[in-house]
Amino acid sequence: MSNPVYLALDLPQLRDAQELAGKVKAHIGGIKLGLEFFCAHGAHGIHTMASVGLPIFLDLKLHDIPNTVARAMQAIHVLEPAIVTVHASGGRAMMEDAKAAAGEHTRVVGVTTLTSLDDRDLERTGVSGSTHDQVLRLAELAQAAGLDGIVCSGQEVKSVHDQWHDGFFVVPGLRPAGTASGDQKRVVTPRQARDDGASVLVIGRPISRAENPLAAALEIESTL
Ligand SMILES: O=c1ccn([C@@H]2O[C@H](COP(=O)(O)O)[C@@H](O)[C@H]2O)c(=O)[nH]1
User: Fold this and answer.
1) Domain residue spans of the chain
2) Is residue 121 among the annotated active site residues?
3) In 9-82, where do the E strands start and end?
4) ipTM of the complex
């Protein structure tokens, strides 16, 4: 079984990102690059990180009208990402067009409800019901739109898996026992998420901000 851990490289310096990826690459399965990285380093940064030799997950969380998102997807074709995110709340037509515009080897997954939000935060955005219900609702929409899967927290992944058996489930908000949650509110351990059906485990600060990132990556790997 391949390593499901994608390391979130939310680092401002390209050199630091390269160095960290090089250090832990034998103990992770891929690299996740987000908006911060893309805005700072663009396509050049993605190509540089691709040379590490691991699959690239472009977590751009695209959210716009269908035409704009489809064109953005076409523009990132050349980077050959293994995974790209769009916001599921962008609607069915947007997700359909995003998937149609993506490269055939790129999995397009829909972000349902950010793992930094709890039920109260969600209510304040005007959405009624729990984060759990909202994730299931958006997962159904993403599946109907033909996406490959969704992003959700480890607290929902089992329920989503039960309703979408062959979906591809990306789970961030992971914290090894005893580590700080920071801004993440719907948190589980990497092992729990794996057992409950996660396909990809997104882990950032527990490795990147650890005193010894290699030891942290090894420790996480040993629990899976
Ligand atoms: O709902 C979401 C969607 C994406 N993320 C991203 O995952 C990583 C998590 O980093 P940690 O340091 O392990 O908290 C980060 O890049 C987020 O942008 C998420 O956390 N939640």
Assistant:
1) 5-222
2) no
3) 30-34, 56-62
4) 0.99
CA-to-CA dists, residue 153 to 104, 157, 165, angstroms: 26, 6, 17
131 within ligand 1 shell (Cβ under 6 A): no
The model's pLDDT over 47-61, given as tens digits with 9 standing for 90+, comes to 999 999 999 999 999
Terminal Cα distance for the chain, rounded: 11
Hey, what CATH topology would domain 5-222 get?
TIM Barrel (3.20.20)
pTM over 0.90: yes
- Annotation says 196 is catalytic: no
Distance, in Å, from the CA atom of 132 to the CA atom of 196, rounded to the nearest integer, reads: 15
Tell me how far CA of residue 106 lies from CA of 4, 77, 83, 127, 133, in angstroms: 17, 9, 5, 31, 28
What are residue 7's phi and psi, to 5 degrees? -80, 120
